[in-house]
Design goal:
alpha/beta; six-stranded mixed β-sheet; five-stranded mixed β-sheet; 15 strands; 21% strand
Length: 268
């Protein structure tokens, strides 16, 4: 995709590759920065359960594919209370501490995924990530940002990580107020990078899961107010609409990298 030049941008051409929802795809992540001046990652590195292939992820590794089939069935039907009870029964059969088991599995994935990041990489958290572990795995050349800004090729990029609270209770869900405060801290930027979309129905509806994911009203308000050139996000794996305009801003779901293995390209 080619965009208009940034204010005060240098004459040299800059190419940035953007990925989101990596979900364990370290193989393609290692190639995602090829030909780019920088890689931007919008989070969700961890693969807990692959809704397309129920044999992949932490959940089937622990409990088997048959149980993975069942919990996907319950969640897809929005029977979240039953899914929670079903998961609790499975975990009751695990002798080790649940938190310790999960952390061990997540650490294994993070070691592989962070090693795959090219230099430079600018990354923020997704809703399934565990931010407290990132400092241990982010190597020199990987910059982690949340509620912060950075300049890439003469353009200002703002980053806001995490998701809003849902019945799914994924690891990094925060309150609307905390999320709005991070949006406010970023302020006016050329490219606004978040994990979740703005609260626009066609951007938050997943056509395969058949449900509306949570988008941010504060993000939508900030886009209308500050008018960034681009608002980039992921989170919704199969969106009804992958991109739309909000005023002067091009809003783009950069894609479900776990399944496509292809980054979205921004050039100026």
């Amino acid at each position: 995709m080619t965009s208009t030049p940034a204010r005060n941008a240098p004459d040299t051409k800059t190419r940035v590759h953007v990925v989101s929802d990596v979900h364990g795809n370290a193989r393609d992540l290692a190639r995602a920065g090829e030909g780019a001046d920088a890689l931007v990652c919008l989070g969700d590195l961890i693969l807990f359960l692959d809704y397309a292939d129920h044999s992949r992820g932490i959940f089937p590794d622990l409990f088997g594919v048959e149980n993975a089939d069942r919990i996907v069935e319950l969640r897809t039907a929005r029977r979240f209370a039953e899914a929670k009870e079903f998961g609790a029964r499975l975990w009751a059969g695990v002798e080790e501490d649940r938190a310790a088991v999960m952390e061990k599995a997540v650490r294994k994935q993070y070691a592989e995924l962070f090693a795959a990041f090219p230099t430079p990489t600018y990354a923020t958290y997704g809703n399934v990530d565990m931010p407290m572990l990132w400092p241990e795995y982010a190597r020199p050349g990987t910059t982690v940002l949340d509620g912060e800004r950075v300049e890439i090729g003469g353009r200002v990029f703002g980053f806001v990580g995490g998701g809003l609270r849902t019945p799914m209770r994924t690891p990094f869900e925060i309150s609307d107020e905390e999320y709005a405060a991070k949006i406010e801290a970023v302020g006016e930027v050329d490219v606004l990078c978040t994990h979740i979309p703005p609260e626009v129905p066609e951007l938050v509806y997943d056509t395969v899961a058949r449900r509306f994911e949570r988008g941010s009203r504060a993000l939508l308000d900030a886009i209308r107010r500050t008018r960034p050139r681009y608002a980039l996000f992921g989170h919704v794996h199969q969106p009804l609409v992958p991109r739309t305009r909000i005023g002067a801003t091009e809003c783009v779901n950069v894609g479900h990298f776990a399944s496509t293995g292809r980054p979205w390209v921004l050039e100026w």
